[in-house]
């Protein structure tokens, strides 16, 4: 068998939502004998889970926006610097294609690749095309997507769209063939709560209270695992203790596959990777989209799962967003009262939805199956196939015979 070993650059930044699919693709491409480098920003470089084989090149995260012209100037300067740094990397690494996963560093990297005449692909994790990807859509060779319907995608770009799904980590995907954990009318009800890679303050307030409102027949069987922000964790611990609900709390669970394997029900934000993992494994969910997500993309992400019967969505009113801790005096007190009322309503809604979904083992099991049916288990390999179908830059290719291990650097091996 003849295998062509190439170099690829993946560009992603900011949050786990952009980086986790990039890590999954990098792992698959390396397994196929290619060499991969990551372009990211300082936030992205700190996201746990980066494979050891993947070198990270940190560029500045330039963001254009806001009213202050100085910020625009700073953003523009960072983008230009990022583009210069990406071009330098391309000169030495000689990629056959550059794949952007969104987030600020993806922008200068893909723009630089376009300028250098390299094939470019963007992957959109959400059900709404993001700002960076909207700008790049015109320039790139292919747009990989994760949902059947993508809002804000210009119809003129539909011809280069490839529906692949969102790549998830290997250990999570491996759970797809495992059965839903045993759940009986008097057994434990294990609930997993996360707020995305950054955590979510509102969940620290509304989830413990919502769970405490459940009828005793369900409440006494609860076992909770919840990710909380560092500043909230003590208060959440006290909340669960006062309700008599056993809970394991952490600011970040590194062993998400194990947590998902055990969970009967998920409650949390509807970021793209979270949805991809829930549908890969088949876990029913109560989803609370981040209300300030750009173009309401977290609400759009819930649609397929909700329509299929795998999830229920709860809206968080926009008014809960400002943090009263940032205000003083009467205004603060008024905001705290208003927020307490809104949080109470959300907690009631969580309770109502759990009563509906977990009333008997069958409804929970059916919802798990419906969630499973929404998964894209081949997302990583389909995306890798798409990447390999681009970027035949013959001078950079190394022809590897019989599947032998690739040379440390492809271009050196050609010499
Ligand atoms: C706040 C914000 O802007 N979020 C966006 C961000 O995703 P964000 O990173 O917030 O959320 P995602 O759901 O996409 O990803 C979270 C990832 O973190 C993992 N995890 C989470 C908690 C934990 O304790 N351990 C752990 O491993 C999850 O398993 C998942 O793989 O980019 C996504 C992709 O563009 C968007 O859909 C989200 O709207």
What can you see in these coordinates?
It is a peripheral membrane protein. It is an enzyme of class 2 (transferase). Pathway: Cell wall biogenesis; peptidoglycan biosynthesis. With 415 residues, the chain is of the alpha/beta class. The protein has two domains: 2-166 and 377-403, 3-Layer(aba) Sandwich (Rossmann fold), CATH 3.40.50.2000; 172-373, Rossmann fold. Helices cover 43% and strands 15% of the residues. It is built from 16 helices and 15 strands. The strands form three sheets. Strands 4-3-2-5-6-7-8 form a seven-stranded parallel beta sheet, with helices on both faces. The chain is globular and about 65 Å long. The model is unreliable at 393-415 (pLDDT under 50). The protein binds uridine-diphosphate-N-acetylglucosamine.
Biggest sheet record: 7 strands, parallel
Summarize model confidence as the mean pLDDT: 89
Write out the strand line-up for the largest beta sheet, numbering strands in chain order: 4-3-2-5-6-7-8
Radius of gyration: 23 Å
> Given the helix and strand composition, which structural class is it?
alpha/beta
Number of strands: 15
Q: Number of helical segments?
A: 16
Number of domains: 2
Highest-level CATH class of the largest domain: Alpha Beta
EC number: 2.4.1.227
GO biological process, one term: carbohydrate metabolic process
Organism: Novosphingobium aerophilum
Keywords: Cell cycle, Cell division, Cell membrane, Cell shape, Cell wall biogenesis/degradation, Glycosyltransferase, Membrane, Peptidoglycan synthesis, Transferase
